[in-house]
Amino acid sequence: VAVKRMPNDWITKSPSEFKVRHPHASENPWSDLAMLRTLNQRACPFVCDLLGLFRDEDFTYVVTSLATEGDFFSFCRSRLLPRPGQAREAAVRPLAVQMFSAVRWLHARGVAHGDVSLENMVLTRDGSGTIALRLIDFGLSTVASQRRGRMGGKHVYLAPEAYCQRVFDQRAADAFSLGVVLCAASAKDYPWASAKRGACPNFGLYADRGFDAFVAQRAAPCGTRLVDLFSAPLAACLEGLLRVEPV
């Protein structure tokens, strides 16, 4: 099993009370647990099992099923995957299919994850040796289809519209984050540091000149340009996911 420890002063009557009492907390554990429990009740096949909550004088312990292979970020950085190129793309493909299926499952039931990232995907190996992908950390998830202004989440994965003070589609923002995940897993590097206008030259190139110009100029850490690393189907998938809305 996996055990997460939280201080007992995090226990509140509701997620909204937690935000009031802990305005600078990087997590929203009770929203996370509430959504995980709901997804377990609905037999979601793409999340870990919530096995129980336990408490002593100082801490509350959240027990879930164990992801034997760790998180997707560490997996992508390890030597378990080949160098960027055709072999790596082939190895990443079955995991990409699972992450697409996982997010589509949520969206079909009215849930936006809100923090899609390599770090929020974990891997577990079943008895046959097959690796299964699971989504974690639902602290920013919501059943609202739209949101106004800056949403939470990690800067490198956020869609550009998430930085603007206007209403945007949270499920489309999830799709953009999936594109960043797929690019990072395939190239072993993030496409940019931030999709906020003016914050990163790489995103500026992409936003101003388009996908083809971006992959033609952007090189992976191995020194090869992205256009020479990605197959045509992968490039088409990334171009669709990383669509920049007018901002």
TrEMBL record:
<dbReference type="InterPro" id="IPR000719">
    <property type="entry name" value="Prot_kinase_dom"/>
</dbReference>
<dbReference type="GO" id="GO:0005524">
    <property type="term" value="F:ATP binding"/>
</dbReference>
<dbReference type="GO" id="GO:0044773">
    <property type="term" value="P:mitotic DNA damage checkpoint signaling"/>
</dbReference>
<dbReference type="Pfam" id="PF00069">
    <property type="entry name" value="Pkinase"/>
</dbReference>
<feature type="domain" description="Protein kinase">
    <location>
        <begin position="1"/>
        <end position="247"/>
    </location>
</feature>
<protein>
    <recommendedName>
        <fullName>Protein kinase domain-containing protein</fullName>
    </recommendedName>
</protein>
<dbReference type="GO" id="GO:0004674">
    <property type="term" value="F:protein serine/threonine kinase activity"/>
</dbReference>
<dbReference type="InterPro" id="IPR011009">
    <property type="entry name" value="Kinase-like_dom_sf"/>
</dbReference>
<dbReference type="GO" id="GO:0005634">
    <property type="term" value="C:nucleus"/>
</dbReference>
